[in-house]
Design brief:
Elements: E1 6-11, H1 17-28, E2 31-34, H2 35-48, H3 56-64, E3 68-73, E4 76-81, E5 84-85, H4 93-103, H5 106-119, E6 125-129, H6 132-136, E7 142-147, H7 150-163, H8 171-187, E8 200-203, H9 209-227
Parallel strand pairs: 1-6, 1-7, 2-6, 7-8
Antiparallel strand pairs: 3-4, 4-5
The protein binds 2'-deoxycytidine-5'-monophosphate.
Length: 233
Amino acid sequence: MKTRIIIALDGFAACGKSTLAKALAKKLNYVYIDSGAMYRAVTLYCLENQVDWNNPVAIQEALEHIDISFRVENGMNQTLLNGQNVEATIRTMRVSEAVSPVSTISAVRRKLVELQQELGKEKGIVMDGRDIGTVVFPNAELKLFVTASIAVRTQRRLLELRAKGDHITAAETIQQNLLDRDKIDSSREDSPLRQADDAIVIDNSQLTQEQQLDLALDLAQICINQQDPILAK
Ligand code: DC
């Protein structure tokens, strides 16, 4: 059987991680997991059930009632919260504005990291997030740290929201949300966003999606060959 590796992709909000991770997984025939979708699903549950996430008892109780899974529909990943498809709702600004504070809670992180590690047990997985190369899979064979300028990231997220029918949220609101999230995600005590020492940086501000994918695929192929008992000799 062909050698399968774990590819960890981390980086700031809206820097194109998921676009790259999805494309890489498709090319390699790997599973793609969006770990941010899990934090978004927990946030949605808290918002809809008026859970005070700063109350340890309340959040623990809520976590016991949360089941997150994924399903592929027409080639697209769908996030399920307690069996219900929440893929569209978790991408709204309401969730984006609360997700970083929820992600600072250690009980939330413990539950989701366990689930993420379980999903990666068989390897052959591309996972994107903030702490994938540092905490979830510190031994991942390939770690990429993706960045892009704030102007490029804002523009991309704006186009995404417009395509989904949100014609109201202004570019300034989006930019502020990205900056706020980056700040909370990078400065939290538990598993902050940071580049793993052995991660390779890809700044895609000036790259097309194809160029970025080609670059990542070349790196993945090198790592796969290194793991192959025959090719690595
Ligand atoms: O990837 P995203 O922008 O959809 O992630 C939403 C939020 O979830 C992000 O601002 C911080 C949190 N997150 C995290 O703390 N750890 C991860 N591995 C993935 C996401």
